[in-house]
Structure formats: structure tokens, C-alpha cells
Design goal:
2 domains, 11 helices, Rossmann fold, alpha/beta, binds magnesium ion, binds adenosine-5'-triphosphate, six-stranded mixed beta sheet
Length: 262
Amino acid sequence: MSLKESPILVVDKARKCFGGLVAVNDTSIKVNRGEITGLIGPNGAGKTTMFNLITGLIKPSGGTFFLNNQNYSPENIEQVVCYGIARTFQNIRLFNEMSVIQNVMVGRHHKTDNFSSGIIASLLKLPSFLKSEEKLIQDCMSLLKKVNLEHKAQQVASTLPYGEQRKLEIARALATEPCVLALDEPAAGMNPTERNSLTSLLNSLKKSGVSILIIEHDVKLVMEICDKIYVMDQGNLIAEGHPREVRTNPKVLDAYLGSNFK
Ligand SMILES: Nc1ncnc2c1ncn2[C@@H]1O[C@H](COP(=O)(O)OP(=O)(O)OP(=O)(O)O)[C@@H](O)[C@H]1O
Ligand SMILES: [Mg+2]
């Protein structure tokens, strides 16, 4: 197996029951290093629940999780971020009252050395503190540039249009320097121009070595950018493969794509 084909994230038989409902039914997926992997399926298929399991937002009823060949327990989301997995949310979760750049700075927090430069240094605003603060702002501005939001850095996050809030969530996730970026419906609410710039952003992140797992109902976008696609329906995996194979799979056409997509 070439290095490129080696999986960075392996989810083996993940399971989640909500009372009598099996939302994720022993579902296994892999995200290959440096690839874009899609997770698609109809409403209620269990896609977001799968993300919530991987990122420690909810406790699994079963399953094993591996990152970089190491078994990890997705106990809580902060710990999962430290392992190297960052995510965005289907229902945007920004710090609404904070500025755009402050939202990105929150994501960067555990990467800065402000803690090591000490509370005294920060209170006295010693040169060491100011230098790391300046570096933090520079880093966050370059992340905002990546998502074309640098001109809105000082704006209050809640005043951004929906599509731009989604881009800001991506910038905040990137601030943690993840090895796996999990995006839950990033194109929702985006206009065609934003959608195109999202496509370029994801392709450039892929080139820079970030492995991406993406849930998206914009099937055209998924087919364009994904190296591999998993299809879920009612908690079960019903298909997996190259976009070419998935789009013509009768089970997928029946459960999800229907006659609307050719
Ligand atoms: N916290 C919860 N408590 C109870 N049931 C839940 C909970 N979260 C999700 N579910 C149920 O689990 C199933 C899968 O939901 P999930 O949100 O994972 O679907 P999805 O594939 O992301 O759908 P969509 O495309 O609409 O976002 C649904 O039937 C949903 O109602
Ligand atoms: Mg969902």
C-alpha cells in the first residue's frame, strides 16, 4: 500500500443507539491520508451522528477509533482536537458576540506559547508576550485570507452572512492545525461564488496534506472533489467507492440520488 493510500482515520463498527433507534449501525469508514472523503445520504441517515462519535461530542454505544494507527477514545471534543481532528458544525457554532478574528484566535489558543511566556509577562506586556501576540494575530489573519475574510476581521461574527459564517468556522478549525478536517455541510447557505471558492479551498488544503472528511448535500460538489465516497441510509452503509461508482449504484440512486442526479 502506498503512503497516500494509508488511512489516517479508521472508524471500525461505530454504533450509536438513541433509545430504540439505531442511528449508526456498526458502520466502518476510513479516511485516507491527503484525500477528500465524502459521507452522503438522505436526511436522518446518521451522518452527523457519525461525526459526533468521531469527534467526541457524544458517547459511542460501540466501535473502535484509530487516528494515525493509534487507538483513541473520543471522550471529549477538546481532547479530540489535541489528537489532530477539527470539525465544523451543521448548525453553525461561532462565538457570536466576538469579532471574526477573535473567533479564529480561540481555535489557535492551544498552539500559542502565551501560556509558556507566563502570566507575569502578559500582565506586564513584556516584549516576549507582545511578540507572541503579534505572531498569533498574523497567523489568524493569514487563515482569514485563506477563506477570503481578512477584510472582515474586526466585524462581529454574528453580522456575517450565513455563507461567510461557515467559512469562518472552517478558518477556526484550521487554526488548530488539524491532520483531519471534518466538515458538516460546509456549502449549505453559500452562493455559487462562495461555493466555487470553497471548492478551491478544499482542493488546496488537500494539496497541503490535510485529510478531509466532508458531509454535504450538494452532490455535484461532492462528486467533483471527493476521492472516495461513503453512502449511509438509516444508520447503515449502503455503498462506498469512487464517485463514478457511487453515482451509478442502484442502491444509492434508490435511497438518495433518485432521478435528479445523472
Ligand atoms: N441526540 C439525539 N437524540 C435522539 N435521536 C437523535 C439524536 N441525534 C440524532 N438523532 C436521530 O438519529 C438519526 C440520525 O440523525 P443525524 O442527525 O445523524 O442524520 P443526518 O444524516 O446528519 O441527517 P441530515 O442530512 O438531515 O443532517 C435521526 O433519526 C435523528 O432523529
Ligand atoms: Mg446532519
